[in-house]
Design a protein that fits this description.
The chain is an alpha+beta fold and 165 residues long. The chain contains two helices and nine strands.
Length: 165
């Protein structure tokens, strides 16, 4: 079942990407899914690259690396193997973030890549509430070069929604 984000945000989708209901996309537990307009060919077996947004209120003292580790462990429960290719802390101390790239083997010969960005965000209506948003690109290794710039533009477009009047 699709979930709601704990904070209101605004963002822009890259050209051609299409929003789809998370449940229809087979992505329970996320608030938003967008699909790339062209499924991969050849070795990718028609896998459709996708962007997702999820988030929840988290303890402000919980390190971002621990949150990223939780994601790795969740994926390890459903995939053949998960390897952290790269992990980088980003952002200022009062609003930390983290990026990581994961190589995931679903089954022998079937690999995907996840680029994950974790963003701390305070609710504009209640600054005491701190959410961590998880912005994710999932694609095949062959698709990564084609869709990574779109993911970067998508991440850069995410911002808190204007306060309610």
């Amino acid at each position: 079942m699709a979930t709601e984000l704990p904070v209101r945000i605004e963002f822009s989708l890259p050209k051609g990407w299409q929003a789809t209901p998370p449940d229809e996309a087979g992505a329970p537990g996320v608030a938003f899914v967008a699909l790339h307009p062209a499924p991969a060919r050849g070795m990718a077996n028609g896998f459709t690259a996708n962007l997702t947004i999820a988030g929840e209120i988290r303890d402000p003292d919980l390190p971002m690396a621990a949150i990223a580790d939780e994601s790795v462990h969740r994926l390890e429960n459903v995939a053949g193997s998960v390897r952290v290719r790269e992990r980088t802390a980003v952002g200022p101390d009062d609003s930390p973030g983290l990026t990581q790239v994961l190589d995931i083997e679903l089954s022998p010969g079937r690999q995907i890549v996840q680029c994950q960005v974790y963003v701390s965000m305070h609710d504009v209506d209640d600054p005491r509430r701190r959410a961590v948003l998880e912005l994710v690109l999932t694609c095949t290794p062959e698709q990564l070069e084609e869709v990574f710039a779109d993911f970067q533009a998508f991440v850069q477009s995410v911002r808190p929604a204007a306060a309610r009047s």
